[in-house]
Structure formats: C-alpha cells, structure tokens
Amino acid sequence: MPTTPTPSLDLDAIREFGPYLQYARDMRVDTGVEPDRYVKTHCCFCGQQCGMQLKVKDDTVVGVEPWYDFPFNKGMMCPKGIKRYLQQSHPDRLLHAYKRDASAPSGFSAMAYEEAIGRVAAEIDRIQAEHGKDAFSILSGASLTTEKTYLMGKFAHMALKTSNIDYNGRLCMVSAAAGNKKSFGVDRAANPWSDILGADVVWISGANVAECAPITTNYVWQAREHGAKVIVADPRITPIARTCDLFLPVKPGRDTALFNGVLHLMIENDWIDHEFVEQHTVGFDAVAEEVHAWTPQRTAEVTGVAEKSIRQAAEWWGQASTSFLMHARGIEHHSRGVQNVMSAINIVLASGRIGREHCGYGTITGQANGQGGREHGQKCDQLPGGRDLGNPEHREYVAGVWGIEPDELPQPGVDAYEIIRKIHRGEIKGLLSVCFNPVVSLPDNNYVREALEKLDFYVAIDFFLNETARYADVVLPGSLQEEDEGTVTQLEGRVIKINPAVQPPGDARQDWRIIQDIAKALGRERGLTFANPREMFEELRVASKGYTNDYSGITWERVEDNYGVFWPCPSETPEGVPEPGPQGTVRLFEPDSWNPIAQGAGPFYFPDGKARFNVTEYVGPTEDVDDEYPVILTTGRVVSQFLSGTQTRRIGPLIDHYPEPRIEMHPHLAAQLGIADGDWATAESRRGNCTLRAQVVKTIRPDTVFIPYHWAGRKSANQLTISAQDPISKIPEYKVCAVRVTRAEAPPEYEEKLQPQQ
Ligand SMILES: Nc1nc2c(c(=O)[nH]1)N[C@H]1C(S)=C(S)[C@@H](COP(=O)(O)OP(=O)(O)OC[C@H]3O[C@@H](n4cnc5c(=O)[nH]c(N)nc54)[C@H](O)[C@@H]3O)O[C@H]1N2
Ligand SMILES: Nc1nc2c(c(=O)[nH]1)N[C@H]1C(S)=C(S)[C@@H](COP(=O)(O)OP(=O)(O)OC[C@H]3O[C@@H](n4cnc5c(=O)[nH]c(N)nc54)[C@H](O)[C@@H]3O)O[C@H]1N2
Ligand code: SF4
Ligand SMILES: [Mo]
User: Bridge partners of 597?
Assistant: First the structure.
C-alpha cells in the first residue's frame, strides 16, 4: 500500500507536565448534517456496551443516535457514549507510523509504514536471538475485540513463542475472575441484568454504579420502584448510594470482614438455605467456623460500619426471597481482592439465591471487552476457551487446532506488573504494547517510567500518542473501534457484534493487520494469515469448543439475529442434553443445567457439579495508616473520564464536565488540615506526591481521601499508589495506601493549564 509522506508530527505541546492535547471541541463537527448511513453497533467505552447507531457522512463518524431496540440499554447512553464520535477525525489522530527522533521538536518524526514494520521485525529478531524468546514481551488490552485478543495470544504463543504476554485486565477483572473460578468454577456474571428487576434486595459493594456503569443505575432504580431494598457498601456516598435504603460506609480494605460479619448473623439467625447448601455446595462448615469470630461488634470495629447497620443489612439479605448482589473494583482492587470476592459469594451461596429468575450475582465488568478479553488467550497463563497454558491436555487441544506440536507452545509467563519489573531488572529487553497505557494506569508509576527507559526496543500500537507511547522507539497507527469489526462480550456474558462504520484514515490500519504484518516481516506468519476478523472468529469457535468458555455454537449471524448470544453456547450437546436456546445460556447455574466440567453432575463448573464455599480469612491492606502517613488514599473514576484518559481527555465537552483531578476530602479532615474547598493540597505517599485542588465534600469517610486517576504526569494519582498485588490474581492494590495531606501553594507548572484552551 502506498505511504503518504508527511511532515513530522507536531507534538510540541504534548509534554510530560500536564499535557496540552488538542480538544475535539475545536473540530466543529456538525452533528446536524444528514448522514449517508446509520451503523448499528456498540459503545467503545465501558463493559455495558450500550447499543447505539453511528451517523456516518463521507467516511466520517459525525454523530451518535440511540438504537432503541437493543435490549440492554434501550436507547439510553451516558455522556461518554454520546460524545465518542469526536475521536475519529480528531486532530491528534495518528495517521502515520512514527519513529523516535531527537532532532524533531516533538521527539518523533513520521516514517513509512512498511519501513516501520521492517524495523519492528528486525528488533524482535535481534532481541530474541541475543537474549532468548522470553526477552520480548507483549502488553495487550481488553478494549480490543475478542478476535484481536485471540490473535494477540496466538501471535505471542505461536509466532514469538514468548511466555511474556499479559493484558490490562490484570488491573481490572482478575480478582473477580479468580474468585468466580474458585467459587463457581467459571468466570462470568451468573445472570442477565434483567434479573435485577424483581429482586427483593439489591446489594452493591464497591461499585460507583451511577458514574461507572450508568445504565445499571436504571436497573437498580426499576427494582427499587418495585419495592426492592438497595444496600450500598462504599467509603463514599456515591450518587447511587444517595438513593439507597441502607448505606454501609466501609473503611477501605475491610470488605471481607464485612461479609464475614453478615454471614455470622445469617448463621446465628438461621437465615441459611440448608437444602441448597447441602445439595449444591461443599465447604460450608469450614466457612461457618471462620465467621464464628466475626461478631457484629468485632465487624463494626474493623469495618467502621455501625453495628446497627450491619444487623440491618444481614436481616434484609437473610430474609429476602429474591436478591441480586453485584460488586466492582472497590472490593477487587486489593491485595486480598480475591478473598473479598469469595466472601461476597459466600453470602450468595448461603442464601441459596442463585441460578433462578431474580436471584443473581454479577461482578460489573469494566472495559468494553473486559469479559471477552479475559477468555481467549492473552492472559499470561491462558489459552483460548478459558483453557490453561500450564495444562498438558489443554496445550494438546489448542496446539492441535493451531497445527503445531504442544511442545512448541511456551510455558505460562508473568503478570503485567511483573513484566515491568523484569524490564526494570534487565531480564526483558523488548516490548510491544497495544491498547494499554501503563505509565498512567499502573501503580507506583515513577517505577514504571524508569523501567520503560531501560528497554532496548519498544513499539506501541495506538490511534493516539498515549503517555506510554512517548517512550516508544516506533509508534504504529492502529484502529479505532468503529474502523474494524468483530465481537465483544459485555458484562452479562452476551457476545455482541461491533460493526465497521468507516475506514482507518491515512496510514492507520486495523490492529490485526498490523500484527499480521509484523508476523509476516518476521517470516513467522504461519497461522497468522487471516483475511478478516470473521475467519479469526471461526477458528476461535473451534479453539474454545468443549471447555468452559465455549463459543462453538455462536455465529455472527446468530449474534445479529438475537441481540447477542450468551456463552457457553456449544455447537453440539451430548444425547439427552437440550441445546441452549437461540440466545445461548442466558442464566448460569439453573438447577438442571449441563456443563462440560460437571457433565450433568450438577449446575456448577466442578466435576461434582457443586459450588465451593471458600474460607475467607480477613487480612488488612498491605500499607495501613500510621503517624507518618495517617490518611487512607483510595482512587477510582468520575463519570465523564475514561481510564487513562487518552481518549476522553481529548473530548472537549467531557473535559468541561470535570477538567482536573481533585482530592476529595471530608470537611472534618479539611478543617484539621486547614484546607478549604478549592485550595491546593499535596498528597504524599512513600512513593510520590501530587498537588491538586481540594474538593471538600461530606460524602466521604473522614479518614479517607479519594483521587480519580484519569490524568497523567504530575496529576497522576498513580504516583502515590502502591504496587502491592493480590497473591492469586496479581491485581494491584489501587484502593488503599497511606498518605499525608498538607495545604500547598499553587504548582506554577500547571496552574495555567487548569482550563483547556479555547
Ligand atoms: N465513567 C467511567 N466509567 C467507567 C470507567 C471509567 O474510567 N470512567 N472505567 C470502566 C472500568 S475499566 C471499570 S474497571 C469500571 C470500574 O467501576 P467501579 O469499580 O464502580 O469504579 P471505581 O471508581 O474504580 O471504584 C468503585 C467504588 O469503590 C469504592 N471503594 C474504594 N475502596 C473501597 C473498599 O475498600 N471497599 C468498598 N466496598 N468500596 C471501595 C470507591 O469509593 C468507588 O466509589 O468502570 C467502567 N466504567
Ligand atoms: N489508581 C488507579 N489506577 C487504575 C485504576 C484505578 O481504579 N485506580 N483502575 C485500573 C483499571 S480497572 C483499568 S481497566 C486500567 C486501564 O488502564 P489502561 O488500559 O492503561 O487504560 P486505557 O485508557 O484503556 O489505555 C488504553 C489505550 O488503548 C488505546 N485503545 C483503546 N482502544 C483501542 C483499540 O481498539 N486499538 C488500539 N490499538 N488501541 C486502543 C487508548 O487510546 C489508550 O491509549 O487502569 C487501572 N489503573
Ligand atoms: S460508556 Fe458505558 S454506559 Fe456510557 S454509553 Fe458507553 S457503554 Fe453505555
Ligand atoms: Mo477496569
């Protein structure tokens, strides 16, 4: 393909200190224009994957319209989804390949695409020849379609033969995944969201539903309209908490104690479904023994929640006849995140309310493809279909599908943060990143920056030059979601179809083409010559067949015809086992359901068909407060910004909504520190510091401050956070570390940049 010559990219403004980005507000896209066509597809941002229509004119996305028929959101959207169209013709869009160039004012100059691919292949070859296969690593992402994530795993394991691939879901869904696997044997929300309607009690732990899963708010409120009691456990009175019936202001890092305390009361009052526990679970007695010590008084002391409220929560939960429990990163981003998840599941299992209409459980998936992206082989220990890279039988099956010997597959590698540590130690020399911005999103990011500077060679694939890509030797122009097609699996476990609306502009390419171009330039294109994403999906169907995440019965047509298909959806079932309906397995764990692990022995995904109660011993956060660092810092999100902000910090109307990160603190703490609303304040941990304006609000525990993490450089919350990880899931402990907070002078470097340029 011919390459258009270009001047060097004008990145002067994009600097480490509070980057100047160009804002899409300046684009004057006229949303009133009559489009050439409407494309039914889904949002590129969060895991709810709202159905929407893109308005397309002259190969440009010019606006968004509701798609009322899509059943999950019925035309509703949040501010991010409505403004997403401002990315595609954004002035910052990468239209060419770039190389690092010290003589260019921006540090980068454009290069021909083919030359860039050749350079990448040569560096991969060199590094692997000199230092071994594992010396080249990959960091991938869960905003990619499932087809691309499948390709990334295959590229790493089959073409590069490196163990070292992992993904940004390591920062997101892995505690939920591990807890679900240990309790249920399978990792997916157990129920469709329609089961929330009609639940007597809705329990929400550590999820800022209204800001981070906005459409779910509607489900919760509809349940409330029908009389449901809503319980929210969070250190902050979030917007959903303002409308709940019972608020549990849990101290960060204490959720296992809270759930153990609730189970204690359920046992004491005999609010246990004995028949279900007996028939469908194992391990209850050991858990009962563990929670025996969690009296309401002790639970209150540890969690900071009043004894009265704990008793009320246990009573409502214990006596309900239908219920839905959901949680998100608030209980999962911990060094005991998996324990927290299992302790939540324990109160669900004890109630017996799962696998039936209006009786449900679900972890709220974060990224667009946070579900599908964690299933098909881009995790460091995984093969497609949820199979294990360390399991000889699984290796044999997938190797058979790929036409290679099992011995040719590498052994499991290490998690994303450990990849960074290996880079820091000089054990890994090369990195390819796609759809991941670790400089902003990983904890203790001063360490991450040091590591990136040590790389021999780094190539990043993105459509914007994110802050990590600024460390790259070569940047390749990838595709936006609307420039490609494929499937994603949204938070209910429903596989849906992303439809292409426009072509990638300039030299930009669909990400999968770029990966295959690299494989070809390496001379390692065997198995990586797909003509389009549909071919990848067809292979994935076979590669996932017969195991937990079985997609073999799903076709793109079936997805389009049924507003999505829920996995597992086998292409054939044993004699006597009914095929799943047209929408696949909508609800998991129905009493007489069949799955490939239990083979009819019971509804859960273990050989005996029974769910597991897991003993959840309470262990506090890795770094607790002390005299030197007396305040708890917790971090998270705001409604108008998304993740590392690469995308949403470029969309003017979203910036206007929340232009700068602030340190949220209670008036009591603020008074103690002599800080008024709007004053500058410095939060300092053992790892770094950050000076931001204070936002004094009554909606947070007085012992805790909150900083949203969507900003880079000196505004990044991850300068402060700790890289402690859960020993099982390896998720970082974003939700608790210790800081001290002091009043500060305005930091001159970024005072002037408070408001985006007009
Ligand atoms: N607007 C917006 N929406 C998003 C995203 C985004 O960046 N912006 N990202 C998407 C992604 S990838 C994800 S993972 C989800 C995240 O969605 P959520 O998990 O809902 O969001 P967070 O803000 O990370 O944290 C949720 C809540 O946990 C609380 N919390 C902190 N510590 C604790 C604790 O120890 N215990 C309890 N019980 N609660 C605690 C915080 O106060 C916060 O209200 O959102 C998705 N949706
Ligand atoms: N302190 C703190 N840190 C956190 C969290 C927290 O709560 N607190 N939350 C964590 C969580 S839950 C998450 S999910 C992570 C997210 O952290 P990241 O994954 O690093 O964040 P993203 O902004 O999604 O970065 C993805 C990059 O991929 C690009 N991208 C998006 N879609 C595509 C695509 O289709 N193709 C290509 N080529 N590129 C694409 C975007 O432009 C962006 O530059 O952050 C984590 N970090
Ligand atoms: S960000 Fe999430 S809630 Fe908002 S429109 Fe997109 S998918 Fe829907
Ligand atoms: Mo996430």
Answer: none
Q: Which CATH architecture has domain 107-172+370-535?
A: 3-Layer(aba) Sandwich (3.40)
User: Would the pTM of this model clear 0.90, i.e. be above it?
Assistant: yes
CB under 6 Å to ligand 2: residues? 141, 143-144, 168, 171-172, 329, 333, 366-367, 434-438, 441, 461-464, 466, 478-479, 481, 511, 635-636, 643-644, 646-647, 709, 717-718, 721, 734
* Burial zone of 241 (CB within 10 Å; 0-12 exposed, 13-18 middle, 19+ buried): buried
Q: Where in the chain is the domain with CATH 3.40.228.10?
A: 174-363
CATH architecture, range 11-87: 2-Layer Sandwich (3.30)
pLDDT digits (tens, 9 = 90+) for 508-561: 999 999 999 999 999 999 999 999 999 999 999 999 999 999 999 999 999 999
The answer to whether residues 713 and 704 touch, using CB atoms and an 8 Å cutoff, is no
Ligand 2 atom closest to the CA of 329, numbered from 1: 12
Which CATH code fits 174-363?
A: 3.40.228.10
Residue 307, C-beta contacts closer than 8 angstroms, at least 6 positions apart: 296, 297, 299, 300
Is residue 330 in contact with ligand 1, taking CB distance under 6 Å? yes
What does the DSSP 8-state code read for residue 91?
T
Which CATH architecture group holds 631-743?
Beta Barrel (2.40)
Q: What is the pLDDT of residues 207-259, one digit of tens each?
A: 999 999 999 999 999 999 999 999 999 999 999 999 999 999 999 999 999 99
- Ligand 1 center to 491 CA (angstroms): 15
Q: Which two tokens stand for residue 322?
A: 């239908």
Find out whether 605 and 587 touch, Cβ atoms under 8 Å: no
- Ligand 2: which of 94, 171, 723 to mutate, most ligand atoms within 8 Å of CB? 171
